[in-house]
Structures are given as C-alpha cells and as structure tokens.
C-alpha cells in the first residue's frame, strides 16, 4: 500500500470521474461538486482499498456511482429537463462555443434515456471504462453491456441526425 | 465519425483551478508544501512562459533602460540574451483569476483568436487564467489538455510587446504563416536560478497588435507552429 503513488492516481482518475459526472448529470458546477464528493470519500477511506480485490478505478467508480445515486435521490423531484438543456449564457464563439452547445444538446438527449442506459453511457463514453470494467461494476454481463451501449449509441446518433434535418 | 467518436468527443479536462483546489482539499498537508509534484506539473508550463516576462516588466525604469540597450530582435520580437538569472530579490506572487472564456472576451479590450486545429484528443479547459500585473499588463492564458496522453499546451495572449529575457542561443527565428516568429527552448528555473533547456518550448509571434505565445512541455515545435498557423487574425 505504501508504494501506491496517490498523486499519479489522482491525476489519472480525476478526468475520468469528472467526465463520468459530466455525462451522467451534466456539465458545470454539479459535475465538479460530485467529483469532489467522490474523491473526498475515496481519500478518506483509501487505506481500506485492497489491491487484491479490485482495480483502484473499479473501487473509485463504485464510490462515484453511489455519489451519483445519492444525488439523484435528493434531486429527483427538483430537476426539470430544462435544467440540463442548453444554457444560452454559455453560448458564443467558434469551436469552443459550438462544443458547449453540442454537449448541452447531447445532455438533453441523455436526459431522455432510462437511468441504466445513461449510467452505462457515462461510464463508457464519459469515463472511458471498458465493457469488462462496467460489467464488474453493474452486475451485467460483458456482452450485455456491449449490446446495450451499441444500441444506445446508435439511437443517440440517429436522433441527433434526425433533429438536424 | 463513428458512433464511438461521436460520443467521446465531448470529454473535457477538469479545470486546472478545480484540480488544484480539490487536491489540496483532500491532501491538506500539500497545500503549503513547496515543490508538490502535482502543483509543479500544473504550473510549470505557464511559469516557464510568464516568468521572464513578468520579471522584465516588474523591473525598475532604470533596469528597463539598461535592458533596452541589450535587446535584439528575433523573429520581429525583442529579446535580451543573458547567462545571468534575471530574478533575485523579493518575489511577489500575483494570484491568477479564473474566468470563463465569455467573461474574458467581454472584459478584454482586444480580440482573442483561438486555434482552428489542435492535436487529436486535446480539449480546452473550461476556465481561462487572467493574471493582472500592477502596471496593467494582463496576460490571458487558455489551456488545452489531453488527459489520456497526459500532454497539453497553453496559449497566452498579451497586449504589450515586452523584451523577453532568455539564455543565449535558446531562441531562434521561425515563421508562422510566412510571418516572422520566435521559438524559445527552455525557461528560467527559479529554484536553481539557471536556464533549463527542457522546461518548455515557447512559440511567440504577433497577430495585429497582440502578442501570442504557445507553450508546451510535451509537444514538438512543429506541432506548436501548426497550431499557431490555425489561429486566424481576429
């Protein structure tokens, strides 16, 4: 345990957890707050982490998913769809702005997905976890994860393109 | 673009300020510790870029006049080449403000050009760093990072064409869109008080009246030039 480079782990895992929450609950302060809550919990309990049981990222994302679940339990009634759609105050300017607008548009599409599908999208496309790692976290089979992700990605892409027409 | 690329293109690096603040929060002991590797990793690119510039501008009028006599042009920009570390004496740490790009654009009296091309996987950080020096000199820095490849670069835009203090032979003339520019390899290491050739590569050039600086620890000079050439005149 003493040989674990926590700083390197922090730098490696922070962008993954941050993007998990961006895809799961939306960009902005919410994603930062939930990322912070995850790392605070993980760091408080990091001595309990056992390398012989799971990869650190699996352990960390177990915590992240609990944090996301708590967030939704607290806010289920309070968060309308409009809250995750385009924020006009963020829009302006070239590629950066287009990216923000596009991501807000994607968030609106993600918000329409069932919770399980959105969770898988956040873990795979946001955090970059493999289907195998997601299977360990979710209890689904690896092939089931792959099938669901394939179907959801196609659905999101076709809905996006249909809106463009 | 396949379905995978369609969905992962929205990944984004966490803002630098958030990264630092959270690390300090979960590791209180590092907040005051000099030489934290994390802080070093995050700050070194900008420090290499800004340090000599800040020192030069913070110098007294007499020092500025002295420097003016030693300044020569490289790539159409003023440089003073010296083996002597330009620091010394008390150092004032000027905290940066972090703002959104929209806030910076609204508050900035000059237009800000952004790259039309960056290396694959590079994503811009949400927050823009603005460092207000006492005499109105206010560099604006936007960072791009590729978290998976642990690489990145910083784009800094300033209005003032200051003389940069660099080591002899560290700076050469190159071209950006057929216009003269300067490429500096290295930066002043404040701890060792020496020039560190490996600190960063910095490309400096002008667009209209603004000075643009691209700095990276990991990217090659050719890549910085390609990024620079994709920035349109505002």
Summarize the structure in words:
The complex is a heterodimer of chains A (about 160) and B (about 230). Chain A is mainly α. Helix content of chain A is about 70%, strand content about 0%. Chain A is built from seven helices and no strands. Chain A has helices at about 5-25, 30-45, 55-75, 95-110, 115-125, 130-140, 140-165. The longest helix of chain A is centred in the last third of the chain and has 23 residues, at about 140-165. Chain A is globular. By secondary structure, chain B is α+β, with helices and mostly antiparallel strands. Helix content of chain B is about 30%, strand content about 30%. Chain B has six helices and twelve strands. Chain B has helices at about 5-10, 15-25, 35-60, 60-70, 100-105, 220-230; strands at about 70-75, 75-80, 95-100, 125, 125-130, 140-145, 150-160, 165, 170-175, 180-190, 195-205, 210-215. In chain B, strands 3, 4, 5, 6, 7, 9, 10, 11 and 12 form a nine-stranded antiparallel β-sheet that branches. A three-stranded mixed β-sheet of chain B has the order 1-2-8. The model of chain B is unreliable at about 30-65 (pLDDT under 50). The interface of A and B includes residues 6, 11, 27, 90 and 121 of A.
Helix content estimate of chain A: over 70%
How many strand elements of chain A? 0
For the largest interface, the chains and their residue counts are: A-B, 39 and 32 residues
Mean pLDDT of chain B: 74
- What is the radius of gyration of chain A computed over CA atoms, rounded to a whole number of angstroms? 17 Å
């Amino acid at each position: 345990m003493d040989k674990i480079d926590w700083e390197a782990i922090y730098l490696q895992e922070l962008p993954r957890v941050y993007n998990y929450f961006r895809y799961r609950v939306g960009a902005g302060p919410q994603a930062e707050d939930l990322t912070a809550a995850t790392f605070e919990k993980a760091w408080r309990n990091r001595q309990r982490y056992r390398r012989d049981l799971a990869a650190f990222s699996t352990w960390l994302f177990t915590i992240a998913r609990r944090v996301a679940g708590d967030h939704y339990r607290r806010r289920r009634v309070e968060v309308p769809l409009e809250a995750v759609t385009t924020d006009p105050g963020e829009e302006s300017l070239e590629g950066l702005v287009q990216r923000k607008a596009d991501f807000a548009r994607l968030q609106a599409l993600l918000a329409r997905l069932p919770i399980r599908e959105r969770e898988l999208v956040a873990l795979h496309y946001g955090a970059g976890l493999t289907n195998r790692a997601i299977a360990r976290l979710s209890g689904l089979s690896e092939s089931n994860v792959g099938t669901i992700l394939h179907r959801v990605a196609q659905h999101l892409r076709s809905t996006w393109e249909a809106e463009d027409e | 673009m396949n379905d995978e690329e369609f969905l992962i293109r929205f990944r984004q690096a966490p803002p630098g300020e958030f990264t630092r603040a959270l690390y300090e929060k979960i590791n209180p002991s590092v907040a005051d510790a000099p030489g934290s590797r994390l802080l070093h990793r995050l700050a070194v690119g900008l420090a290499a870029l800004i340090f000599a510039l800040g020192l030069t501008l913070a110098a007294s009028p007499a020092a500025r006049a002295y420097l003016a006599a030693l300044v020569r042009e490289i790539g159409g920009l003023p440089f003073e080449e010296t083996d002597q570390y330009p620091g010394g004496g008390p150092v004032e740490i000027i905290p940066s403000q972090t703002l959104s790009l929209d806030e910076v654009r609204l508050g900035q009296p000059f237009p800000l050009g952004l790259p039309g091309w960056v290396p694959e996987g590079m994503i811009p950080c949400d927050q823009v760093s603005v460092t207000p020096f006492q005499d109105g000199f206010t560099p604006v820095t936007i960072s791009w990072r590729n978290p998976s490849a642990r690489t990145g670069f910083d784009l800094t835009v300033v209005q003032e064409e200051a003389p940069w203090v660099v080591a002899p032979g560290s700076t050469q003339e190159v071209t950006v869109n057929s216009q003269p520019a300067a490429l500096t390899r290295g930066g002043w290491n404040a701890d060792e008080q020496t020039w560190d050739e490996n600190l960063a590569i910095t490309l400096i050039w002008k667009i209209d009246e603004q000075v643009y600086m691209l700095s990276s620890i990991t990217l090659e000079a050719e890549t910085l030039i390609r990024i620079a050439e994709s920035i349109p005149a505002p």
